[in-house]
Write a structure and sequence with these properties.
Nucleotidyltransferase, domain 5, five-stranded mixed beta sheet
């Protein structure tokens, strides 16, 4: 990870702060590093953890039921809302994949806010109307390929009544034959008995643990690419390093979601050691398309540059 780095840092400290709702402004005070240095280190960590996640996904026991939904947030300003599409295992609450969709600002607005939205759309262009559909289609296409590799004949996919999910599934090769789509009302209480509870639980964890997504906060994301980098780091912690339930942890049960799906702790340590102290390469990782976009900092709000420049070796 430290290839061509002039100032080594404690990566574990950065990860701990990231997953405990600490903003990057706080981290500059704790570490003495500049904001740009911290973001650079997060990008390096993210690529390594994406490589680890791709290997772990091959090792875990296949599940036969999933939940998919969108987590609404924003980056740059509230005039650039987004929908982070999340695929979660229903039995384990393990995050299999995440995608990004830019949305058009909706809801109640003052006349001044409505005019500002119009001015921004004239300058930068409107958010694509089918962004959610394309994002979900990409995730479900990779899910079908994953099922084929794991020799799973079919799975159940639980979603709400969002029309984009139906359109996306209809465009996925083998989607109708491999995925049994069940829709549930999003107004029902998201108790553990609700089929959408797993993805709602992940939404709550994001709100609780990620400074970018705490409601009514000044610590919002300034870039979709950086936001997805930080969420991918959190995905690794949520899946393989965090005890599944706090109440079980208090009783001495530290079993993670990965361990629940059949991957012992020693195997996880083996995969981490394989990647942690070495440079990772894109062409040697089995990433899904949304993960490649995160690796290459490809997520954008229409008309706005991320301001990040990737060194050549990241593309290899």
């Amino acid at each position: 990870m430290d290839y061509y780095v002039k100032k080594p840092v404690d990566y574990i400290q950065l990860i701990r702060q990231l997953v405990s709702s600490s903003g990057q402004g706080n981290m500059t005070r704790f570490t003495g590093m500049r904001y740009e240095q911290i973001q650079n280190r997060y990008e390096r960590i993210c690529r390594v953890l994406l490589a680890i996640h791709s290997d772990m996904r091959k090792l875990i026991k296949p599940e036969d039921e999933f939940a998919l939904d969108g987590f609404e947030s924003f980056s740059v300003s509230q005039f650039f809302p987004n929908n982070i599409n999340i695929l979660v295992g229903s039995g384990s609450e393990l995050i299999y994949a995440m995608g990004y969709s830019q949305l058009r600002r909706k809801g109640r607005m003052t006349e001044r806010q409505r005019q500002k939205r119009t001015d921004l759309e004239q300058t930068l262009g409107k958010a694509p109307g089918n962004a959610v559909e394309k994002s979900v289609q990409s995730i479900l296409t990779h899910l079908c390929k994953y099922m084929k590799d794991k020799d799973i004949p079919n799975v159940t996919l639980n979603t709400d009544y969002h029309k984009a999910y139906v359109r996306a599934l209809s465009k996925v090769p083998e989607g109708r034959s491999r995925i049994h789509h069940r829709q549930h009302s999003s107004t029902l209480p998201r108790t553990p008995s609700n089929r959408l509870f797993p993805v709602n639980y992940v939404d709550r964890q994001f709100r609780k643990d990620q400074a970018n997504h705490v409601r009514e906060s000044v610590q919002f994301a300034r870039s979709p690419a950086a936001m997805m980098v930080r969420l991918s780091i959190y995905q690794m912690v949520h899946n393989y390093l965090m005890p599944r339930r706090v109440r079980d942890q208090r009783k001495g049960n530290w079993k993670t979601r990965g361990e629940q799906l059949g991957v012992p702790g020693w195997k996880l340590h083996e995969v981490i050691r394989k990647h942690w102290d070495r440079r990772v390469f894109l062409n040697k990782c089995s990433l899904w398309e949304p993960e490649k976009m995160t690796w290459l900092l490809g997520w954008r709000n229409r008309g706005i540059d991320s301001g990040r420049r990737l060194p050549f070796h990241v593309w290899v």
